[in-house]
Amino acid sequence: MAFSSRQKKVKMVKENILRVLKEEKLDNKGSFEEIRNLAREPIVVEYIGTDLDEFFTEGLQELSESGYVKLEKNLIYMTEKGFEEANTILSFHQIIENYFLKDLDNETAHRYAHILEHLISFEVEKNLKRIMEFEDSGEPLTQYTADEGIITGLDFTDKKMLERIISMGLCPGQRLKIITKISGCFIVKSRYTHLAIDKSLCKGILVAML
Amino acid sequence: MRKNKKVKKMDSDFSVCTDNLKEEIIVFLLGQPNVGKSSLLNAFVGTKIEVSNFPGTSVEITSAEKIFTIFNKKDNTTKEVKYIFKDTPGIYSISDRSVEETITKKAILTEKSDVVILIANAAALGRSLYFALQVMEAGKNIIIGLNFFEEAYKKGISVNTKKLSQVLEVQVVPFNPITGNIDNLIITASEKACNPNIKNYCTEYDDHIEELISFIERNVKDKLPARFVALRILEEDDDFTGQINDHVKNELEERKEEISDKHQNIKEDISKIRYGTASFITEQTTHITPLKKTRINEVSFADKFLLHKIGGPILTIIFFVCLFSILIFAGQAIQELFLWIGNWFINLIPENYWQVGSFSFLNLFRDGIAGLFAGVAIALPYVLIFYLILGFTEDVGLLPRFVVIIQRFFDSIGLPSKSFISIMLGLGCTVPAHSSTRIINRRKDRLKTAFLFSFIPCSSRIGIILGIVGFYGSIWLALLIFFVEFISLLLWAVVLKYVIREDAEPLLIELPPYRKPMLKNVFAKSWLRMKDFVKVVIPLLVIGGILYSILEQLGVTGFFIKPFDNIMGFLFNLEGEFIVPLLFGFIQKDLTSAMLINVLGQTGVQALTNLKLITFGILACTGVPCIIALGMMLKEYKIKEVILIFLGTLIYAIVLASIIAHVGMLFI
Q: What ranges make up the beta strands (E) of A41-174?
């Protein structure tokens, strides 16, 4: 599988450079060759393909321009801003890996985390963290008592209905605010839209406390 | 497919920069419901399409054409280019749960287009992008039009269109059809149509799903992109599953089985990843400024009352009481004024002039004018007032709220809540109401709703009830007819609930934000809906009046009426003459009132007893309303179903009117 977007590839390389500088105990600095070799993880090579070196140079340039690293002679120094960003990436990685460890083996979970850490957004990361903290997998919206929650799962046998629900923005990880209950319906706010959902459908939407 | 054949030339033009400017460009408008597709079409070609603030206004593909004079900067030439715009029903994803979804899906997959404008809602970008990603997978030559840009900005949401465009690898153009800010959109669409580039953003799924996609891609041949076909097969789309042979199918099942521990439901996982991608892109390209008191986080003031457990039903009842009160009082006042003008004008025309024997040609003119004034005076006020109120209700965004409020009540009588929208439209005209049932997902639910239209008085029938029974009898008699129709509706709904045993479709509907209604749009929409009245009904009213005058002057009306004397008398205690307005009413309901006046004269109608007025009102207002509605039913449903509905409701109307006529005799 190859990523179709150049930006995504550059982003993945950039974040991997920061992660290597932080994680590989290099004291936040390393030589160009050292960092490039350490960042050349099999999974990164598999996803980016043979152009990795080209993307490495481009990624490093962008990191330098954004103030995440400083380039001096052959050495790459991580700045304070870069250090914070690296912490975020590692935190993403750990959270995602832990999340997948619930259902998958170590290797697959680690692999998924490597892919998703570069793609996932801060909002989703926050929500995943919360989902992991739940002892159960949430409760049906009909039994949920709080005003706000996060969708932890969808339990529907009608697959077309399931797709409709997801396409309307009700997807696991999504925040939900219950506005009111009226006439056998739940009025909820998901992102910036209000939806009226029949009670029978609400039974299949699993929600947990934020 | 509706088609506006007339091609108009535009005074102003715009400039493009392209190598090969086509002479004809087909533009598809796609997007989720209530995202502004029809508004955009109106902005492109002028006000011709109905636009409302509720999901599901367009239930069929509307085609409109326009010639633009375009200056091409590339070679400094000016050329007239014919644009064919196709407005599709809004859908949330490529699916076929309902008829409207099937129509749009078929259009995406089979109809030729030079460019697709996918309209996204800036305030709900994630959801819009879900559908956009699917359309991109289908390999369409696409640009994205971003609507409600200003509305989103007021809510603190700003979309970085440049970044969005870079990520999706397609042009993203903000536009506003209301203010007429559409030039950039049409320019970008034109250039994209002339230089197609379908190297769209490609949603990546996880490696297990990607492996399945690759496997199917190697085994399918289709005009559509192999990746899209593979995804449709994995998403269990019946239109595509037949494209792989049994051997491939078996191998696919085995491969699915191998990854079943990781992907128990591949269809669901594809949807989740697609939505996740859409959300991710949204978060990367949207900046949200927290507002001090943001309306998006609060329930709007109106919803606090309208969506209240007790307040909602009360306000709904108040709304309908107000609606009918306005119809009754304002309608009757206008009717009186029209009748006064009509009588004054008719009295100017002398009787029995220009005679050949006993046949007066001037009388033909006189009776034609009398028919016209009677029809216009009785039907027009009620039709016009109803459409103005309906247009206002739609544009404000009240209709979906009413759908929610009546949900439990409709559920108890076995009707899907969405049928409320069709019923409201049915109070205007049964013809568009039948086509609007396409928003109802289940076929059986559509049929139930279609059957019940027989008891929902359209605005022409409201004209008969208020303009004949209410005006010449009393308003209480008119209300009694409304009550009888309402009870009939409930009775049949309950009967159908038990005959067609199926739980009603659960409700899942978006509540659009309240919007200030634009008077221009309300009037334009009312005019669109009234256009048939002016173009078809008015000539029919004149022809009906003249036709009856010829028959009467020739002394042959008795020949036609006499056979009905006995049967009308036996069944309904009515004279044979009543058959004339009833039969004319089947051609067009507005003719009923006019022909009754023609046959009996105003004094004759004034002399009718209350019982006769009620019996006539029930007969005229129950069952399939007119031949045009019958034609629409034949288009929408199977012939057997139409015959069943037509005969079933006709027999019911006859029995009901007969019972009222005979039982009423005992009391009056």
A: 69-72, 75-78, 139-140, 148-154
Phi/psi class of residue B204: alpha, beta or left (left: φ > 0; alpha: ψ in -120 to 50)? beta
User: How far apart are the C-alpha atoms of A51 and A9, rounded to whole Å?
Assistant: 10
Chain B contact for A154, CB < 8 A?
A: yes
pLDDT cut 70: percent of chain A above it: 68
Q: Which of B130, B60, B123 is nearest to B92 (CA)?
A: B130
Stretch 506-525 of chain B: residues touching chain A, C-beta under 8 Å: 506-511, 513
| Maximal CA-CA distance, chain B | 96
**Radius of gyration of chain A, Cα coordinates, nearest whole angstrom:** 21
- In angstroms, rounded to a whole number, what is the distance separating the alpha carbons of residues B113 and B522? 31
pLDDT by 10-residue block (mean), chain B, 668 residues: 43 73 91 86 74 62 85 84 89 82 88 93 89 91 92 86 89 90 90 82 82 91 88 90 88 88 80 82 81 54 84 91 88 86 84 71 81 78 85 86 88 87 85 82 87 91 91 92 95 90 79 84 80 76 82 80 88 91 86 87 89 94 86 89 93 95 84
Distance between CA atoms of B317 and B319, rounded to whole angstroms?
5
Nearest CA in chain A to B281: A121
Residue among B276, B279, B309 whose CB faces A182 most closely:
B309
* Beta bridge pairs of residue B30: B118
- For A7, the token pair is 């930006």
Q: Is A129 helix (H, G, I), strand (E, B) or coil?
A: helix
Helix, strand, coil percentages in chain A from 3-state DSSP, rounded to 5: 50, 20, 25
High-pLDDT (> 90) share of chain B, %: 27
Strands A69-72 and A185-190 come out as: unpaired
What chain B residue is nearest to A177 in terms of C-alpha separation?
A: B297
Burial (CB < 10 A; 0-12, 13-18, 19+), residue B399, is: buried
C-alpha triplet B573, B576, B577: angle, nearest 5° = 115
**Are A192 and B155 a contacting pair at CB < 8 A?**
yes
**Run of H or E residues at B653:** helix B639-667
- Measure CB to CB from residue B207 to each of A1, A124, A173 and give the nearest one: A1
Contact (CB, 8 A) for B378 and B332: no
Tokens linked to B515: 């919007």
Pairing of strands B9-16, B62-72: parallel
Kind of pairing between the strands at B24-31 and B77-87: parallel
Distance CA B358, CA B128 (A): 72
pLDDT in single tens digits along all 210 residues of chain A: 333 456 667 777 887 888 788 776 566 777 887 888 877 777 677 667 767 777 888 888 888 888 888 887 678 888 888 887 777 777 666 666 666 665 666 666 666 666 666 555 555 555 555 555 554 567 899 988 888 888 887 888 887 788 888 888 887 778 888 988 887 889 998 877 889 999 999 999 988 876
Q: Which residues of B touch A199 (CB under 8 A)?
A: 506
Q: How many angstroms separate the CA of residue A77 from the nearest CA in chain B?
A: 27
Optimal mutation site among A183, A186, A188, interface B, most CBs of chain B within 10 A = A183
- Cβ distance B272 to A194 less than 8 Å, yes or no, reads no
Full set of structural domains in chain B with CATH: 2-194 (3.40.50.300), 207-288 (1.10.287.1770), 325-351+369-667 (no CATH)
Residue with token string 């040609």: B361
For residue B66, give Cα distances in angstroms to A120, B119, B194, B196: 45, 20, 17, 21
Residue B457: CB atoms within 10 A of its CB come to: 26
ipTM: 0.75
Q: Can you list the domains of chain A with their CATH numbers?
A: 6-91 (1.10.10.10), 139-208 (2.30.30.90)
Confidence (pLDDT) at B296: 44
